[in-house]
Amino acid sequence: MTPMEASPLDEAQASVHPRPAQFGPFGRLLLGVSKLLAALGGLAFVGLVAMSLVSIVGRKLFSLPVPGDMEVLMMVAATASATFFAYCHLQGGDVKVDFFTAKARPRTVLLFDAAGSLSVGVFGALVAWRSWVGAMSLREVDETSAILGWPVWLAQAGMVPGFALLAVAGLYMCGQCLRARKAAGAGRRA
User: Is 25 strand, coil or helix?
Assistant: First the structure.
């Protein structure tokens, strides 16, 4: 078997694992919002690349860099990077180490996937909460960036929607995996 070929076990596990095509109305809405947020994050990174190119060329050729380019890069990248996680999780794009579950039954794999998604959901909620608390602390002390004087709390608060959406995505996928596991069990008994 070549590395690109799927084993019959992989195909059996993939057939019961929840996919976006099997999502209900809420799942499709969640996927759409996640995709939109990820696209906005991608556009933010494209903008950062363009700004960096202008700054580098300006610095090297004309001694005119973009003022505060590193501040903008750090603040926007922090916010933009949080936008991809929910979409990645809903698409099943997480890194999974299946060494221990490679020969497990699909129902067992789905149980582990549900536990993993629950962990993702709890992690997303925890990071969203702590990011918000941190942002409010920075707002209270009125911390600003050194060159541009931008409020630092805005960048940290900007991460909250991405992590909150990750929490919802994780909990949704946990439910999807548990439903798929139940359906796989009912199919075996029939």
Answer: helix
Domain ranges of the chain: 23-189
* Residue located via tokens 């060329």: 57
- What is residue 151's DSSP assignment? B
Smallest Cα–Cα separation from 120: which of 77, 78, 80, 177? Answer: 177
The pLDDT profile of the chain, 190 residues, written as one tens digit per residue, is 444 454 444 444 455 568 888 899 999 999 999 999 999 999 999 999 999 999 999 999 999 999 999 999 999 999 999 999 999 999 998 887 777 888 889 999 999 999 999 999 999 999 999 999 999 999 999 999 999 999 999 999 999 999 999 999 999 999 999 999 998 887 666 4
Choose among 20, 47, 51: nearest CA to 169: 20
Distance between CA atoms of residues 55 and 43, nearest Å:
18
Which amino acid is it at 105?
R
Q: How far apart (Å, rounded) are the C-alpha atoms in residues 32 and 91?
A: 11
**Chain centroid, CA 76 distance in Å:** 16
Cross-strand partners of 144: 151
